[in-house]
Every structure is written in structure tokens, then in C-alpha cells.
Amino acid sequence: WYGDGFEAPAVCVAVDSNVKRVIQAIKPGAESNIRVIPNFVDTEKFVPAEKTWEGIRVLYPRRLTILRGQNEFIRASQQHPEYHYLAVGQATSENTEKQAQEWAKTVPHLQFIHKEMDGMEEVYQQSDISVVPTKSTEGLSLSLLESMSCGLPIITTHAGGIGDAVIDGYNALVFDPHNDNLADYIHYLAQNEQLRKVMGERNREIAKCFDIKIWQRRWKQIIDLF
């Protein structure tokens, strides 16, 4: 047991409820010091925008790593090239990132770009679907919450703390990256405009529960204890 980091402090703050459940399952009682303060989104900055383009744009706002689902996203783009795919995130190395960008130049419907966090709202606002296909090691994803706040329908997984913000079939489509084909989920959502609209509206409302002002207030309550 290597849980001293959870048990020794007076308070241990987790960004999602999954952390508390995992510790509770490993050693019941060891989770008593864990306080969950979910990750946040600035709902005044990340807002929906009207669609002004033709076709379907599928966004992958993630780091370019295997665990974040880059392979599933790339494979989906090959299976349904009728949609436009955009990956926005850094790779594990500058060389890997450059290789991805060079390769994408040969695939007209797929782009790899880098964008600073300031300005990311514009990328969400110019997309139809956001894909968060994490296979493991995920908290309550910031890019998930930002996508939701911008009124996008989501395709994601059960990894980590994602379940704190999504209900399969209600505001997102949840797939199993080990057994399901991401391309099928993208195609289904791309072909169902009404479902995209309904899920996007629901996501905008749910995102307000994770607004940055709520996060600030909860952290202040913790800090005031000391």
C-alpha cells in the first residue's frame, strides 16, 4: 500500500470522484481525507456559436498520445473520410508532432495543429462533434468540459472521472475503445443532426454545474479551514 499521500494530509483534493472510489475499493476508510473538487470551465468564455460552414467537423482536443486515443481518432478519419477531422494538441515530443503534421498534409480531410489554451474556444465554436476517446489515465477532462460548455455533442469513454459529467445516450455517446469502433459512433452522430442539437444543448446546461466560480468557491472553503 502506497497510499500515505492520501491518508497523511489533513485534506487531499481530487479533481473527480473516481479517485475517491478507487482508494475506497483498495483500502476502505483511506478515502476519508479526500475532498472532491471537480475540474472547471469558464462558461462565460466557452460559449456556443452558430454554424457557418458546410459538412461535419470532428474535433480531437487532446494530447497526441496512445492513451488519449490518438490511434482511434486517426483510424476513424480513415474509415469515414467524408468528414473533416482536426486534432489540436501537443505530442510527447516536438519531433513526433512535426511528423504528424507532415503526414497529415497528404490526407486532405485530416489536420494536426497546435493552439494555445487562450483561443481554444474558437476551435470548439468551429466544430460539430468533439471526441474525447481516452483509453486510461484521465481525470475529469478539461477539454471535455470546454466542449460541453461550447454546446458540442460528445463521443467519449468510461475512463477515469469522465463519468462525473456524462450520461451515455443523454448528453454523450460512450464507447469502449477496446471493443467498439469509434468511426461507427462518429458516423452515427454526424448523420443525426437533431441528436447533435439536443446533446449540445444538454451539455451547455450541464457545463454550468462545473463553472469556474463554483470551483473557486469550493477551493476557498478548503483554504479557509487552514
How does this model look, in words?
There is one protein chain. Helix 3 links the parallel strand 3 (57-60) and strand 4. This protein is globular. A six-stranded parallel β-sheet has the order 5-4-3-6-7-8, with helices on both faces. Helix 3 crosses helix 7 (182-190) and helix 6 (142-149) crosses helix 8. The protein has nine helices and eight strands. The protein is 38% helix and 13% strand.
Helical segment count: 9
The main pleated sheet reads as: 6 strands, parallel
Write down how many β-strands occur, each being a DSSP E stretch of 2 or more residues. Answer: 8
CA radius of gyration: 18 Å
The structure class reads alpha/beta
End-to-end CA span: 28 Å
Brief summary:
With 226 residues, the protein is of the alpha/beta class.
